[in-house]
Amino acid sequence: MHQLIHRVTMQLPCMKKSISDIEGVCVSLRESRVRAEGEVRQCFTSLHHLLDQRQTQLINALNTVESEKQRTLGTQLEELEGWVQGVESGCEFVEAALTQCPAMEVVLVRKQLGERLMDYANMNVPPAPHQNSHIKFVVGNTDPLKTAFQNIGNIESNSAVPHQSSVTGESLRQVCVGRGGTVTVMTRDYRGDKCVSGGGDVTAAFTRTTNSHPSLPRHGSTSPRPTSTSPRPSPLSSTSPRSNSRSPSTTPRDDPSTPQVLDLNNGTYEIGFVAGTEGTYSLEVLLYGQAVNGSPFTITAIQPPEEDSASSHRSIPNMSRQTSHSTQVTSRASRTSRRPMSHRSSCSRRTNPIEDDMLLRVGRRGRNRGEFVNPQGIAYNSIKDGRIAVADSNNQCIQVFTLSGECKLRFGVRGRGTGQMQRPTGVSALPNGNYVVADYENKWVSIFEPSGKYVTRIGNGKLLGPKGVCVDHNGHIIVVDNKASCVCVFQQSGKLLTKFGNRGTDDYQFAGPHFAAVNSRGHIAITDFHNHCVKVFDSDGEFMFTFGSSGEGNGQFNAPTGIAIDAYDNIIVADWGNSRIQVFDGQGSFLSYVNTLADPLYGPQGMTLTPDGQIFVADSGNHCFKVYKYLQ
Fold first, then answer.
1. Which terminal residue of the chain has fewer beta carbons within 10 Å of its beta carbon, N or C?
2. Does residue 403 sit in the same domain as residue 530?
3. Phi and psi at residue 593, in whole multiples of 5°?
């Protein structure tokens, strides 16, 4: 009996913790309901405001029409009343003269009296009204509006619990350095049944737990790596075995580029990540803030197989013009290793003996001015001899630099209120110099003056998770809604002009689109992250063509992100999973690479071009932005 009592009492702490967890979920559930109710009320309050505004406009229009008609009729009425009064008084005067005046006086004034009566008789006063009483309200076809009202919003929920949810995928144990890995999260309810709806709060963190080590085996090979002659300055060929300059006991927590989570809206989620160096990494997957079954997962990053490297040594097609983009990788790359982040200055010019196209590196990991944590969007602004604005996502602010890398301004207040930032991901500049900032978490786009003063916001209630933003030649704001897998085009006033795309794999569909750019003809090029391609649409949102496919060869992508278009309509694309920059012509044919070999990119995100031919790239995994030469 004592043993049974002991076994039972051993269960008490677990049961009490479960009670505490359940009570916590109940409280959180109530808070979620209150928050959702507030959002519902806010949504319909704004709709009521629009309806009241329209009602006021229509009533004012009624009053205006009535006033105009009343004015016309009033003028005519005054004329007629004056005529009647004149006739009556004239006739009375003549009758009085005929009855009361002597005959001689009547003879003397007969001519004047006759002329007066003749004037009244010949007066041309139209008796018909100059206006009518027609004024009515035409309702019009409200059926689409009624249907739209019935479809406003929906209540999203699921029964997914962390302890029953699991993660699967070939990348769960081992990935190749510099190549994107993908795992799938499958959510289940407490009974273990698969959830079929999305919307779950799935987050992930991918961090290195050990240093790279020279004894770490390569995938499929233990022989020394041959000298690379690839025309592609891929980061894969530049991450060679490291000399173990630091003790393995030191385990700095490198922060690779933030994992990308894609909600497939069917109860499953895809998580993409990239390992920058050899070593052991930890992938932590959370559902509603709690670890899913088996999390965290230990993942080993190894060098890619030798046969893969050899097979990727492809030649670049002959080009009709000379560029500065690299077409050859020398054996020096295999002897190069990236310095640890702590050894970098916040703004440094090229000092590495290995030649590449990089001119400048700005920033490092940190919370201070000029430092970044996961920079995303980047944009050129023509004000004050040129400025570069960077969306510092995890620091929840925008930082503005000179073209030489000096931080001149930092603005943004963390929060979910008007004028605040929760997760800025995209940034662009309007013709007047104002900044346009896409906020993924707040689900809107904010506009700020060049000084950082808040102006207004657009897209509130119309966006689910905006990522990239750009401005076309008409000043229209093009927003890439990553979560809704669509593109919205707004006027600066906030009026929605065009919306196109939805989730899928067809030509006109997207799967987690990231950034957009506009060419000289107004065509919109969009990077389709999970479909591994770039899609081009005309200004009305009609599909034109697509280019790229999943892979590591010339013209292929492993989750494209940043995009820019030069004066000749050549398209420059940041390849997130392959950590490189590729150049294409206006029809999507591969031209070349930008040489990023000496200081490899690590999960590049946004990208912009300056008029003097420089590429600025937000290097999210290295927490900086880099400047490369680019001859147009």
1. N
2. yes
3. -115, 155
Measured in whole angstroms, how far is the alpha carbon of residue 553 from the centre of its chain? Answer: 28
Instruction: Quickly list DSSP for 422-473.
Output: S-EEEEEE-TTS-EEEEETTTTEEEEE-TTS-EEEEE-TTT-S-EEEEEE-T
Contact 167, 297 (CB under 8 A): yes
Residue pair 491/436 in contact by the 8 Å Cβ criterion: no
**Measured between alpha carbons, how far is 581 from 593 in angstroms, rounded to an integer?**
6
Q: Which CATH number goes with the domain that contains 256?
A: 2.60.40.10
- Which range scores top for mean pLDDT: 62-71, 177-186, 238-247, 310-319? 62-71
**pTM for the complete prediction?**
0.55
Structure token digits, residue 186: 């499958």
Axis crossing angle, helix 103-122 with helix 2-100, rounded to the nearest 10: 150
CA–CA gap between residue 615 and residue 610 (Å, rounded): 7
Listed range (286-290, 329-333, 516-520) with the worst mean pLDDT:
329-333
Residue 592 in domain: yes
* Residues listed for the chain: 632
Q: What is the average pLDDT across 287-297? A: 92
CB contact at 8 A, 475 and 457? no
Number of H helices, E strands in the chain: 5, 34
DSSP string, 519-554: -TT--EEEEETTTTEEEEE-TTS-EEEEE--BSSST
Domain of residue 206: give its range.
161-309
Using alpha carbons, select from 613, 615, 180, 207 the residue that is nearest to residue 374.
Answer: 207
Cβ burial 193-225 (10 Å sphere, 16+ → b, else e): eebeebebebebbbebebbbeeebebbeeeeeb
Q: Average pLDDT of 67-72? A: 90
The answer to the question of residue 245 being in a domain is: yes
Could you tell me if 365 and 252 lie in one domain? no
The whole-angstrom separation of Cα 443 and Cα 439 is 6
Could you give the CA distance from residue 558 to residue 538 in angstroms, rounded to a whole number?
25
Residue 37: per-residue pLDDT: 87
- 349 pairs with which residues across the strands? 360
Query: Which amino acid is present at 612?
Result: D
